[in-house]
Amino acid sequence: MRWGVVTFPGSCDDHDVVDSLRSELGQKVKLLWHKDELAGKFDCIVLPGGFSYGDYLRCGAMARFSPILRGVIDFAQSGGLVLGICNGFQILCESGLLPGALVRNADLQFVCQLVHLRVEETDTPFTAGLRKGQLLKMPVKHGEGCYYADAPTLERLHKNRQILLRYVDAKGKPTTAANPNGSVENIAGICNEARNVFGLMPHPEDACSKLLGSEDGAKIFASIAAGYAQKASAHV
Amino acid sequence: MSDPGQEKLAQSAVAPEIVAAHGITTDEYQKIVKILGREPNYTELGVFSVMWSEHCSYKSSRYHLKNLPTEGPYVLQGPGENAGVVDIGGGLAVAFKIESHNHPSFIEPYQGAATGVGGILRDIFTMGARPVASLNSLRFGSLDHPRTRYLLAGVVAGIGGYGNCIGVPTVGGECYFDECYNANILVNAFTLGIVKKKNIFTGIAKGAGNPVIYVGSKTGRDGIHGATMASESFSGEKEQRRPTVQVGDPFTEKLLLEACLELMEKDFIVGIQDMGAAGLTSSSAEMAGRGGCGVELNLSAVPLRESGMTPYEILLSESQERMLLVAKQGSEDEIRKIFEKWDLDAVVVGRVTDDRQFRALWQGKEVARIPINALTKDAPSYQRPAAPPQHDQVQQLDLSAVNEPKDLGMALKQLLASPNIASKEWIYRQYDQFVRTNTVIAPGADAAVIRVKGTGKGLALTVDGNSRYCYLDPYVGGVVAVAEAARNLACVGARPIGLTDCLNFGSPENPGVMWQFSQVIQGMRDACTALNVPVVSGNVSFYNETDGVPIYPTPTIAMVGLLERVERAVTPWFKEPGDVVALLGRTREELGGSEYLKCVHGLTRGTPPWIDLKMEQAVQRCCIEAIEQELLCSAHDLSDGGLAVALAECCVGGPEKPLGVRIDTHEMIRGDALLFSESQSRIIVSLKEENLVGLEEIAARHNVPLQVIGTVGGSRFVIQPLLQLPVDEIKTIWSTGLSAVLK
Predict the structure, then answer these.
(1) Least confident segment among B3-7, B186-190, B280-284, B453-457
(2) Are residues B432 and A112, on separate chains, in Cβ contact within 8 Å?
(3) Is A112 a catalytic residue?
């Protein structure tokens, strides 16, 4: 499977995604530069965390106009898998590949902490290897991670079962206390209607090793890789 | 002030009041005239004022700093460079340094703290090292003081705003509150980077004719005379100083970091230095000073952010996110290409000369000509008068007049809720602790631990300093600061490899402060020597006083340790019911200078706890060996608040559910001393019962007192026969002590 990870100016977690995919999951990964057009064959493109172009305007607002993103949007629209983590999620919302928006955390502070996530849907390539209701532990670290969508959009998200992850407490309850940023309905990650684009605020790449406290993030990457392998063998 | 910079060199003498406004004394001015053989012009006066400022020249501290041990078998670069460098084996080394940004942070907390982080990051990647972890040490006034919350919120947001955006995790730190910092807070920032041994760069200019290249942000009028400001005491007019604080742009620094590290993979650089305090002036002069050559700067070529800037302003600007490098001739185009990729300026602004002069040109005319040595090694150095301050009675403490509280449980709760001891999660949750995927032990433990990818090794990092001890006895305070930092490392299982210090004091012109300074240095020296820890870099911040009242002497020690196998690192928290709790070291009746006396009795008195450095080293070695043999489940240093507070932290400080404990002790000392004495050289450990024999054997070999004092488990926190409390209550009090006050 061929992974592409985009480096925008100001990306911070690009190398972390590459490292985790390579050393913890043995995947083939290529770094992509924001000024280039998307060229070559990829099976999954990752938009990593960080502060693309400084995020001085609005998170992700500049990155959506970068040359590489034109290709990423075409790739997504033709069914390619796109994973946006943190700033990547913000970019996906800005570019219209995902509905809704990520706004300033409810307490107006940057938040870095370990959170529990509940898997809400498993019929996507990103969560197929997980169980419905399964709890995952990984960090969030963001200042603008409060997911917002208006009522009609939320209704569509429900109807199409696009909410993939929610912030919950250790017992799996989506309480207010377990919501680190004030996201509507404790939403931590959503996919598009076609289920090939996934954005989430937590960082799976920071949770791929027992030494670092959790391997739950690797389960998302592994799910993507396993789905690909299955498809590849079906084609043989 | 008018600026005669464009007039012919050495034409106009400057008026005495302008000299005084630059912080230059009459004697120093005479020295300048003698060096130049003429009166300086306005531009030159500006150059002298920043280069001879306390901040850049260390003129009051150099005499004392040379007492510190700076050498060791693994030290690759000691003090005097942008950062110290220590070998960690396998072809790798670590570069690290701590630096203060106190005055700017008091004036404008967000930008002051943010640019402090920006500055220390540049010091690290200047050496060719990839920054991988940061720490910070903060001191604020009392939380009752009207300005403290504003300062705390601004400083923390500023540190996070810069560090998070540049993608370097903040993995630890410390924060204390005391009235002595009401009008002069301390913000000390530390960064560590990893560098290939064969790829270390230094700030040196060599090779006449080599181009001097300016890279990074454009130059503006911000931060002019920041270095001079950092070398003065505050008086009532701090608000007016706001324009001397720089404004940070972490995005540009991130680009600069990546561009510089990319450039350093090539063989184009002779030397490189960050433009920090005193900007273009100090970076060029210091590089030429180290290389024994001269430098000629063409100020007309410097990229400017605003029009109409004078040579004086260009030379003294402290605009952030700029670096100066000396390159090999012929590499200019290749260098420009790399910076263009990252959308940054890279402009030749001068060349290396062999005349040992600092020369600046403006529109083809020479506007400054000063011998390099006059700005660097021949800058003034003073052996200032030192005498013990007149507060010696503070050491007197009659414990019999201090009533032991009837309810010791209440006293413990009071301590746990106090902002100095309560959880600092409100602070560190605003920092990205995980980026770079190395963080093995995150903030909240005795020391942070990060892995060194591809080696199996780990690095432990801690920052420590007890200024109340230093106030009561600066020598002992200096010893304890170093010893405790090393003990923090021992608690995670790391052996110390070097330290960097940030020495925050009042005015060196006050003999009492100078005496404190020399005593602290002697204490540090003795502890460093006994514990074999070299000082590899550091920073002195004087003039931390307002209207003549100095802060407590505050040496901040940041120490780095190495773990041969990172997976062996242990945390301070109890792990499982049934584990045995043991105490290494001995508790004595030492309440002088304790957090308990201050918090419960409102007293800052007495002599700080005594410390036997041989015992200290034995306790640390015992702990490290036990961790290396994988005998321990947890280890926690005893410090502020003593045994009771340390045990409470072991029970509730971890990320998992709190655990109770039952302790039985039999020391024949008064109850409050047993619980809250801050006797040094003590570590609480927990372990499986079957490992006790192994621990006893190690303790006996090192002659370390070892007492089994209790068992982990239950839902209560019990210290027989003195107190018992529900462990959930302790958790709540300790977790919310700080955040509740800040709501």
Answers:
(1) B3-7
(2) yes
(3) no
Residue-by-residue DSSP string for B464-490? E--HHHHHH-HHHHHHHHHHHHHHHHH
| Nearest alpha carbon to residue B546 among B53, B184, B105 | B184
Nearest Cα residue in chain B from A140: B432
Mutation test of the interface with chain B: which of A5, A7, A11, A12, choosing the one with the most B Cβ atoms within 10 A?
A12
Nearest by Cα to B217 from B158, B189, B257: B257
Which of A15, A21, A201, A211 to mutate: most B Cβ within 10 Å?
A: A211
- pTM value is 0.96
Residues pairing with B626 in the sheet:
none
Between strands B322-327 and B269-274, the pairing is antiparallel
Give the model's pLDDT for residue B462.
98
CA–CA gap between residue B257 and residue A191 (Å, rounded): 34
Structure tokens at A135: 């709890």
pLDDT-derived band at B6 (thresholds 50, 70, 90) equals: very low
3-state secondary structure at position B659: coil
Closest partner CB to A112 (pick from B429, B453, B655) = B429
**Considering only residues 177 to 196 of chain A, which have any Cβ-Cβ distance to chain B shorter than 8 Å?**
none
Please state the rounded mean pLDDT for residues A203-231: 96
Burial class (CB in 10 A: 0-12, 13-18, 19+), B307: exposed
- Beta strands B661-664; B716-720: pairing state: parallel
Chain B residues with CB-CB distance to A11 below 8 A: 167
Q: Looking at chain B, which residue has its C-alpha nearest residue A56?
A: B251
Q: Which of A16, A55, A208 sits opposite B435 (nearest CB)?
A: A16
- Give the strand pairing for A135-142 and B186-196: unpaired
Cβ atoms within 10 Å of A131's Cβ, excluding its own: 9
Note whether A79 contacts B: Cβ–Cβ < 8 A: no
CA distance B712 to B323: 54
A121 as an active site residue: the answer is no
Q: Please tell me the distance from the alpha carbon of residue B352 to that of residue B294, in angstroms, as a whole number.
A: 6
Interface of B with A in 320-339 (CB under 8 A): none
Cα gap A228→B269, rounded to integer Å: 46
Give the catalytic positions of B in this structure: 55, 101
A189-210: pLDDT as tens digits = 999 999 999 999 999 999 999 9
Q: Do A10 and B255 touch (CB under 8 A)?
A: yes
φ, ψ dihedrals at B192, nearest 5°: -120, 140
Q: Specify whether the CB–CB gap between B437 and A205 falls below 8 A.
A: yes
Q: Is A18 in contact with A31 (CB distance < 8 Å)?
A: yes
* pLDDT tens per residue, range A118-174: 999 999 999 999 999 999 999 999 999 999 999 999 999 999 999 999 999 999 999
- The alpha carbon of residue B556 is apart from the nearest alpha carbon of chain A, in Å, by 26
**Inter-residue contact B558 to B465 (CB < 8 Å):** no
Count of H helices and E strands in chain A? 5, 11
Given the residues A59, A86, A93, A146, select the one marked as catalytic.
A86
